[in-house]
Amino acid sequence: MKDRRVCVTGGAGFIGGHLVDVLVSLGAMVTVIDDLSNSSAEQIASAMDRAPDRVRFIQGSILDAGAMNSAAEDAQTVFHLAAMGSVPMSIEEPGRAWTVNATGTMRVLMAAQKAGVERVVYSASSSAYGNNPALPKFETMAPEPESPYAASKLAGESLMRTWAACYGVDTVSLRYFNIFGSRQAADSAYAAVIPAFVTRYLDAKEPTIFGDGGQTRDFTHVSNAVSANLLAALADGALGGGVVNIGAGVRTSINELAAMIAKILGTQEIGLDYQPERVGEVRDSVSNVEAAKALIGYEPSTSLEVGLASTVQWYAQEHRRLGQSKSQSESESA
Fold it and tell me: So which residues are the catalytic ones?
């Protein structure tokens, strides 16, 4: 990736921020476009401090043609991660989910085409499979999206295939399975399950589980998603809009996850708060990643146990830091 010119949409976000960090460390020339609606500029500012001559930041929306054209200019590869990424939020705001995730993806592809980009790597979602009971999930299964989020992300996959077929922009779609890791937002009503659980345990409160906790997921550390993006960018030959699963291939229930986190933190005495299941959520999910291995050479390198331990440690450190800052502020104001 050294000296490769890349554009990262949503590069101030959770997965995008981790990808930007690695791209910078590898010597790439990185342009980030992000409207900061779901993130802050803190991580991008840090990247710019480390490599001011190789990181450019555009605060803007992928829906803004001028901003997107500027971001894609001269890029060889576009990593498209910008999205409205919450199933519950998409149910509340289906129009916004479609505009950002479907129309926004088309705007990214149009800008890539105009700029002569060689390849667009799209962050797709395993939510496309819906509640099909067959496990593990294979890319050949018929999509069954059951939320506006899932439908809008699936539309993005179709656009990737279309641009590869009609406009000479090579593309690939990476269907992520429950990506987790440090810096994932824990203070949102739509927080992902791992940061939400860790934060509740650190506050000595019961984590909330929607449903009976028997539902299963394929929790995949963010380092695996970053690896998949890099492999997709550098893969030889045309990828032609191909769709591949990016997961760890291990099925874990929400109850098991809670127990693992409690054990790491030593908070097994804290119970769990069970609430009614949420509309649009799938029951079970786990990936088969053989197609990704064949197409881009992907194999998961960080296990759930290793990734969870480092992630919980990061949140614990942040919790202590914020607590110390709060205590200092209260002391100074007193």
Answer: 149
